[in-house]
Amino acid sequence: MASSKRGGSRELAYLATSIGLLLAAWHAGAQFADPRIFPGPVPVFAYLGQLAASGELWFDLGATLARVVVSFAVAMLVGSVVGVALGVNPAADRLFGPWVVLFLNLPALVVIVLAYIWFGLSEAAAIGAVAFTKIPNVVVTMREGARALDPAYSEMARVFRFGRCKTLRHVVIPQLQPYLAAASRSGVSLVWKIVLVVELLGRSNGVGFQIYTAFQFFDVRAIIAWSLAFVVVMLAVETLLVQPYERTATRWRKSNV
Amino acid sequence: MSDAARLKVDIARKVFRTADGGALEAVRGVAFEADSAEFVCLVGPSGCGKTTTLRIVLGLDGEFQGAVTRPPGRMAAVFQEPRLLPWRSVGDNVRLALGDDGGADVAALLADLGLAGMEAMFPNELSLGLARRVAIARAFAVEPSLLVLDEPFVSLDDATAARMRRLLMKVWQSRPTCALMVTHNIAEAVELADRIVVLSQRPGGVRGEFAVTAPRAERNADVIAQLTRDLLARFPPQ
Q: What CATH superfamily classification does B1-72+146-153+177-238 receive?
């Protein structure tokens, strides 16, 4: 325990040095460039401070984060249900497997544009489009997970009359957990990038909208400030939510003797 | 003994489809009965359909010709591998089987099986012998009217297997139930059973039955050796 703590603080020192070096290189590089084309960290963070003080930062970050959360949840739910259904039912998989491949290769941009044309420039169309782009990835991962389900445990559950709910909660989902974790990990990073695109194309708030506005004014300082703010938020989600969840869910594996 | 509480097995025929489209007849004519507090062992050469018979008795395989009547009440199984949920603790593994209407006193059962103080451990932290004891605890916890055991002591060293047999007997005698156990070890069968059903080679059918009348307390090594010889004399290996 003590050694892992020391290892942790050493990790932290490396991380701080790494970020410090990046900022220093950025600052040094900016000295040689036109500040409007490539601003250094000082003006970018100053601008970020202004955005935070005016409240604009929190409003647009919040709007984007809400879209990420909802479309991620929809994609995970629908994708898991469809994926598991295909994984345990080979006939359905043969019938609908090609659909999955088709949708997997459909560019996100096409989905977004069609969603806006068919359903209007609405919040539902935006979120639906993002979820729809992510669903095939979730389906593929969860289908793999469902195929790997061990019949020995299902038989045990049948003999001991676990019933549907108990079997799902204690037998099926723990086996799918590594696949769920893999799908959510790649899901979060994919979804937030696509959310920026739907915001750019058809929303009037959010980080994507702000970046679009900055693009029209060729305001590089704002573009970098907004992206930095959002990357920090997503890193926080990763460290504060995803990683602790994975640690608890895989606790039983660690106890291997 | 009321007739309804008996286990009645009558499997006329069980055929498996093989991967290349052929048919493999695994069982032909396995019929026997067991009383509500009787310990019956199925013995026979490997591949004679013992495990297939157990799966049919447990209702895990419904595609066969014949009929199985189970005693009313719950079933429990001790599988060849312990089949504990690795992501749930020992205590949770046992309690999950209980269901809503409760069941046996789990703490007392774990203590009887020498598992006191291990409730919070995960199955991966246990040896195979201990994991098997948890599987036995889980089976008795549901207070089954039918207990099915599929070679529960296979791949344990002799001393551990002998200790496990004594534990199983202790727990079963204080909570008697209709028990059906498969084993390929004839000495194990004569030590534990009231009656032994001997199966033939594939397709497995009943060759005959062998009643073990000696009281369990008197079944020492000599008696077990003598009974094993008697059984093999009546049913010489095919």
A: P-loop containing nucleotide triphosphate hydrolases (3.40.50.300)
